[in-house]
């Protein structure tokens, strides 16, 4: 009898033990987001707290992200589109509706960043950071007044200019100068913008969207058209870097976190969104990448100097916003690759 009992115990242990020792597969989150935008400290903090490992792949334009997502071969759980890209992804049914019961911290957002027109009813997107695209000038080097794109793209500044490497942005500078609305991207309007762009492109020394501030910080360039966070970082180190909202027209971007259709780790993605909406976490993002923080509770934690940075928090109320332009994207791409091939 004893032997039967001990055999049973042994068998039982053999069955139970392996599963006790086997750790559940670590949960992971495949994040596809803008470069120079999510501090590693934030990612590490999330992993420490939740055990969810984050694979962070980076891109430097909405178009690059959408192309990769459309190919369907990569399994991303969280992407970071700007407003017009959210609009595009919603139109194409490429996003999952978010479960806001897992994102209670959405309440921390300033009400002006809730329920925005590109996502009616706020079903798919949560704003991450916002800002403007504008001009940065090293006023130690450039003494002439700079007010707009026309002042930047001048022959006398040839090879002293840094510029975001973003076709939609660059084309919008020319449209603004020509007083053509930035969302009216038609073959006729692009034909009008073309001579201006052909003249401007060879003046630029560095096209880069990952770290446009670097050539300015290192003294290789003296002025540029940049995303405001880059200008704000330059200003933090040296107040000679002045930020100017282009007088011909300035546009605001709102970058969001969204879950692509069919994401395998949707809940992990929602946990991450909720995590970054904590005021103290969102503050870390502002400390490292000083864009305009849409999180009202996080803003309360920022220093007066951070809030007084003119590139992060410019005084303006007249800003344009990009919309999904459908086939216009392809037209812009074709025009710009043709112009670039001539350089
Ligand atoms: C940060 C990217 C800013 C995105 N490097 C501008 N929409």
Summarize the structure.
The protein has 343 residues and is an alpha/beta fold. It contains 14 helices and ten strands.
Question: What would you say this structure looks like, in words?
Answer:
This protein is 40% helix and 16% strand. The protein is an alpha/beta fold and 343 residues long. It folds into 2 domains: 23-130 and 254-308, Periplasmic binding protein-like II (D-Maltodextrin-Binding Protein, domain 2, 3-Layer(aba) Sandwich), CATH 3.40.190.10; 131-252 and 318-340, Periplasmic binding protein-like II (D-Maltodextrin-Binding Protein, domain 2, 3-Layer(aba) Sandwich). The strands form 2 sheets. Strands 4, 5, 6, 7, 8, 9 and 10 form a 7-stranded mixed beta sheet that branches. It has a 3-stranded parallel beta sheet with strand order 2-1-3. Helix 2 links the parallel strand 1 (28-34) and strand 2. The structure holds pentane-1,5-diamine. Residues 34-37, 82, 227, 229, 253, 255 line the site of pentane-1,5-diamine (N2P).
């Amino acid at each position: 009898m004893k032997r039967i009992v001990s055999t049973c115990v042994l068998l039982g242990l053999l069955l139970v033990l392996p599963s006790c020792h086997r750790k559940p597969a670590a949960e992971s989150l495949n994040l596809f987001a803008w470069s120079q935008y999510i501090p590693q400290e934030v990612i590490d903090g999330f992993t420490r707290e939740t055990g969810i490992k984050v694979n962070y792949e980076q891109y430097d334009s909405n178009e690059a992200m959408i192309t990769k997502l459309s190919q369907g071969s990569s399994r991303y759980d969280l992407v970071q589109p700007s407003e017009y890209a959210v609009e595009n992804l919603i139109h194409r049914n490429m996003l999952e509706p978010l479960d806001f019961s897992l994102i209670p911290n959405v309440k921390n957002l300033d009400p002006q960043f809730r329920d925005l027109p590109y996502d009616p009813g706020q079903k798919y997107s949560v704003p991450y950071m916002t800002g403007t695209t504008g001009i940065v000038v090293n006023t130690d080097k450039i003494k002439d007044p700079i007010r707009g794109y026309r002042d930047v793209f001048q022959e006398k500044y040839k090879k002293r200019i840094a510029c975001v490497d973003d076709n939609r942005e660059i084309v919008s500078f020319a449209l603004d100068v020509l007083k053509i609305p930035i969302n009216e991207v038609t073959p006729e309007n692009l034909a009008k913008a073309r001579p201006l762009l052909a003249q401007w492109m060879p003046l630029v020394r560095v096209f880069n969207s990952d770290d446009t501030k670097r050539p300015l910080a290192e003294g290789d360039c003296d002025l540029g058209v940049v995303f405001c966070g880059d200008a704000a970082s330059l200003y933090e180190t040296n107040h000679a870097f002045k930020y100017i909202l282009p007088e011909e027209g300035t546009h605001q971007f709102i970058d969001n976190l969204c879950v692509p259709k069919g994401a395998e780790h949707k809940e992990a993605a929602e946990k991450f969104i909720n995590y970054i909406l904590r005021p103290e976490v969102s503050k870390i993002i502002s400390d490292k990448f000083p864009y305009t923080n849409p999180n009202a509770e996080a803003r309360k934690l920022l220093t007066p100097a951070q809030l007084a940075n003119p590139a992060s928090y410019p005084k303006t109320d007249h800003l344009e916003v990009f919309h999904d332009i459908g086939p216009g994207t392809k037209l812009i791409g074709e025009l710009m690759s043709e112009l670039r091939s001539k350089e």
